[in-house]
Design a protein that fits this description.
The protein is an alpha/beta fold and about 250 residues long. The chain has a single domain (about 5-240), classed as Metal-dependent hydrolases (TIM Barrel, Alpha-Beta Barrel). It is about 40% helix and about 15% strand. β5, α3 and β6 form a beta-alpha-beta unit. α1 (about 30-40) crosses α2 and α7 crosses α8. It is globular. Mean pLDDT is about 95; it is low at about 1-5.
């Protein structure tokens, strides 16, 4: 039940770099725990850490081992945060479709969805075709921070992606201008149009996390309303984690 019903909602973050030493996120186990404490204080009880699935970063075996290590450390420290498998996959390369849809594809939770990052500055003219191809292979793309990517900054492109069957993830910081004015403008428009399926932190460091994420969550509530903010932060990400449809 949401806050309006008198109960504190429990939030779920499907995009953050909580696992230490696997990418450009947390550097040490203590940083992982600091980030976890901040997320819990902000109302999160479930997180699917999303290490970058890139050749220059940790392979899937190390990422999975680190997930278990952090899970055990959270339990030992008494931090009530449940962790699930995930990864942030780049929408680049000739083998992209084969890799994300294959047996070793690094998917979100139950595996129906895959977190995908579009290029920040390069166009993706075949975006609807790529979305269709992923759907045919049995996976639905969850696009990370589309408001920060050039292709999604094109007028009408976020709505086209949703119409093609993709789901979109708001990077909360965009609403406070953390990533610049263009990203803020697109984020606000997508919130107003109801195009986002979920909201997430994309947290990389514990530095100032409690303050900036808290402000960004407040900005979301102010723009979308309390009930919709709770859905974007709680109900819907939990459904995606379980592999459920949002329809």
């Amino acid at each position: 039940m949401g806050a309006a019903g008198g109960m504190t909602p429990e939030y779920c973050d499907l995009h953050c770099h909580l696992l230490h030493g696997v990418d450009d996120g947390a550097r040490t186990l203590e940083e992982s725990l600091e980030m976890a404490r901040a997320l819990v204080q902000l109302g999160f009880r479930t997180v699917a850490p999303s290490p970058h699935a890139r050749p220059e970063y940790a392979p899937v075996e190390l990422a999975r081992a680190r997930l278990e290590e952090v899970r055990q450390a959270l339990g030992a420290a008494g931090i009530p945060l449940e962790l699930h498998v995930n990864a942030e996959n780049d929408l680049v390369g000739d083998r992209f479709l084969e890799e994300v849809a294959g047996e070793r594809g690094r998917r979100l939770g139950a595996g129906r969805y895959v977190l995908v990052e579009a290029p920040y500055t390069s166009p993706v003219p075949r975006l609807p075709d790529l979305i269709f191809a992923m759907k045919v292979k049995g996976v639905t793309p969850l696009f990370a921070h589309p408001e920060r990517c050039a292709e999604f900054q094109r007028p009408g492109r976020p709505a086209q992606a949703v119409a093609a069957g993709a789901v979109l993830q708001l990077d909360l910081g965009a609403l406070t201008g953390r990533y610049g004015k263009p990203a803020k403008k697109v984020a606000e428009a997508c919130v107003e149009e109801g195009l986002y399926a979920v909201a997430a932190t994309d947290l990389h460091s514990p530095n100032g996390a409690l303050e900036w994420v808290g402000k960004a969550m407040a900005a979301l509530r102010a723009r979308a309303g309390e009930a919709e903010a709770d859905r974007l932060l709680g109900e819907r990400p939990l459904r995606l984690l379980r592999g459920e449809s949002l329809e």
